[in-house]
Amino acid sequence: MTWRSRSLVVALAATAGLSPTGTAAAATTPQATSPAAPRTAPALPTLHAFSVVHGSGADARVKLTAAQLWQTTDGLGVTVQLRRRSGLTTGSKICVTFGGSAVQPPCFRKERSGWRLTIGHRVAGAVALVGRHGITTELPLSTLGLAPSQTVRWSVASAAHACKGGGALPCSDRIPSGTRTVTNRLWTPVATGCADAGARAFTGGPATRHEVAMTFDDGPSEYTAQIQAILRKAGIPATFFMIGRQIAGHEAQLRSEIADGDELADHSWSHVDLGGGGPLATTQLTDTNDAIRAATGFSPCLFRPPYGSVGSDLVARAGALGMSTVTWNVDPQDWARPGVEAIEQRILAQVKDGAIILDHDGGGDRSQTVAALPTVISELQARGYRFVTVSALLGKPVTYGLRAPR
Q: Model's pTM, two decimal places?
């Protein structure tokens, strides 16, 4: 859905009535349902409409009758409804102020040809009309100086152009009236899966970009949080290929990884050789996907076969479940515990553009892997490499949903 049609949907939801919490009616924002399994988390919405705020009964030259914030995975939108016979003239403005933001307020400015959205003296975005008396727009949170999960205090004010007061009607109007503000807590966009997968197999990414993907197999385990802390400090993402039967008890760890921008992927339920494919492979993959989805709401886009054992039937079965099959092209054999320096040297010697680096966060003592990671990251950053998830490296579009504040 484009931002314009999405804006229209939210604004119409406002005029049709919202639930007491401000969430758009189900008929307005249809959501795909997850498979009917009791342990599967519900699908996250891609749109949330906050409660409509109505204006005062007092009249004004540019009368505001209602205003509403709404959030998508792309940004924050605002819809303003005006009185039918508003005293609009060219140059009149309606501005939205966000308390605590260092950015100048975005303003709808009336032009001869319609409306223009400005921040300061620059055009900031497009404006759509909603019915005969509504205007709406959407902007990235960063453009507004806001961040996910932030509590925002906002208000909307109108100002009639060249109005000096003293007339029958005030020159300005405000929602809410006086000096009050409306308080809303923003939701957080989180990855929910991929828009594209297919029965394909990859050993690395394109050699046309100076990017690499760090991957970790056989977790979650006691070492996973240590690795995540190193990744977080370095400000880089990674992809974790998980053993399904080890997820129980580590659900909070998985949610933390998703929140950090890491990718969760399937590495089978019990790390058996699935290279021959068959029904067992489907069961192993499905059970692991269900466990990841139940813990986080994320549907894995990738599968890594245990031991790198892969065949055409296995690739097809993974594809039928919406996953591409991924192995690697950099292997330090850290599972054998060859020593911290050996792990560092092997990775740095093998890395090239489009590398998928195999490491392990489970399956045994991974203290050497943890110790080697900071040096590997700093050296690759010094070489100018950009760290991305495997899906990003392969150009797989990631889908997002909105998670309510906790």
A: 0.77
